[in-house]
Amino acid sequence: MTNLSLRQQSIIDLIQLQEYCTIDALSGHFNVTTQTIRRDINELCALGLARRHHGGVSLPTTLSNRSFASRSATNLDEKQLIAKQAVAEIPDGCTLFLGIGTTIATIAEKLANHQQLRVVTNNFQAAHILSQHDHIETWIPGGRLRTNDGDVVGDNISQFFGQFSADIGIVCCAAVCLASAVPSPQELSPLGLNQEEYAMEHELREATVSQAIVAGSQQKWLVANSTKWQRTASARVAPISYFDRVFGSAEGV
User: Which residues does the UniProt record annotate as the domain HTH deoR-type (predicted)?
Assistant: First the structure.
């Protein structure tokens, strides 16, 4: 994983909150020269974490998720803490479904001391980590391996998860944001559709796989660092209230 400097991480946090920051404003905020800020921004752009504009910087303009490498470089401490908290609640001898995402891969790194686990995942990074342990049985589906983030994708992935039953299913998401629920006519509010926080993904096929994971699990867990509450995405996974456990929050963990 590529570690960002504290200032670079803070720049990412600011542009995630504000969507755009000027070079002069960042220079004043961190009390450094504009040349120093430009060097930081050049490195962030090279990692795909930012987009340079004349006189400023923003998040990359994309409807898809960023690469696994670029996402791995952000919010490392928080992801480590979330993973530690989740792993502490996983008992030996259970069957786990693990979805995609860098926090899920971090969870896989911390499962080495667990005994007699069966793990089913389409997260290639997580599968590679777990395959090094004889006492962890790891299952992955067949399909195309995405070069962007190392996930196994395809129309058969949801069916693959459907062949198993898990004690715990853990998914990540691209965003947590308000979306219109579709209540029954009796539940419809006078103001129209009810609004509820949903775990969201950028792509429908990602959301569909996450839905298959939680549908086949007795315990449904969501892991989401605090930046997820500052983003938007368009493909619904499930309402936050649907999950038995949520590790992480809008206020941090």
Answer: 4-59
